Amino acid sequence: MLQPEIRCVEFVETVTEWMEGALLEDERLALEEHLVICPHCTEYLEQLRLSVAVLRELGTDDEPPAPDTRQALLEMFRRERRA
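Structure (tokenized):
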């Protein structure tokens, strides 16, 4: 059954809760259906997963990234968005 449509802005606002398994089933299904049809949000999710992996690799232990690391990640996201 198709869930109510969500917009990209709603996806961005809820994707971290989805990644943590904190959404209600209807919300989760709507988000996953949006991913099937939206290449932009799929790319955003991949960038988010990459960021999480890089930060884990750096061993941040829940500490915020250093300012230069944060800046490098932001620049990478900006480049990817323009591509």
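The mean pLDDT is 83. The CA atoms of residues 44 and 50 lie 10 Å apart.
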